[in-house]
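Prompt: For my understanding, could you write out one protein's sequence and backbone structure tokens?
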Amino acid sequence: MFVATVVVSVLLALVALGSATAKLTKQPKLVEQVTGLGEPVSWLPRLAAPEVAGAVGLVVGLAVPAIGIAAGVGLVAYFLGVVAARVRAKDAMIASRLILAAVSIVAVVRRALTCERPEFLSWFRWKRFPSQRRCALDWKLHEIRNKGQ
């Protein structure tokens, strides 16, 4: 189950980083789209920042679930904001942004449902802090496995 979370998170992070790179390098096609929406070109670095933060947060969130969930929620808000800006400008190119928002929602839900951590991190935290609850599902599984001990 965690493998699907890793795949969705990493792919979404790569897409977000690619989009941010296009904004930071001011690709001509992207500049044309942004100016067509009525936004100044000087906003491109500001528009790239949430994408970079979301991408980094998704990858870090594979080890720390709360960060992954927060990054995913941030990307959902960002892509829905992009859709809103395009609808306001009466631009019909919103399908790809809606798909990215949907994939971001999937990443958030997957991360919330799989509170696993990479093996070396979960071993370290579980051995050092046995009272720490990683998530309700993990805790129940731990109780079931160790019932006879």
User: Anything to note?
Assistant: Helices lie at 2-24, 28-36, 44-60, 65-88, 95-113, 119-128, 136-145. Residues 9 and 58 are 6 Å apart (CA to CA).
